[in-house]
Amino acid sequence: MKQDPMNSVFAALAHPVRRRLLDILVGMPGCSVNDVAKYVVPQFPMSRIGVLKHLRVLEEAGLVVSQKQGRVRELYFNAAPIQLVYDRWTSQYSRFWAAHVNDIKFLAEQEETGHER
After folding, report:
1. How far apart are CA 83 and CA 117, in angstroms?
2. 5-78: which CATH topology?
3. pLDDT at 38 over 60
């Protein structure tokens, strides 16, 4: 059975260190692993290897893309997986709530009309 790719996105976003890493990459596109570690380690004490492990999880989920430029890996945030999650859940639930809001509006209008008689 094939695993849903959204599972890896949710799992990657579940950890506060990985969310912080994404925040850093949004603000500093193209930064290196060392740059990221400078900002993460004071808040979440860990080794550079620990930072690399978290980045690997983000890459496997498709949330981080890296490019090798010489000896430096440039890191970039990829919003596409989050957009897919957003589209799936918001469109499904917005239809649900839109239908309920229309029902409430209809009932309120009926109530208002009934009071005017």
Report:
1. 50
2. Arc Repressor Mutant, subunit A (1.10.10)
3. yes
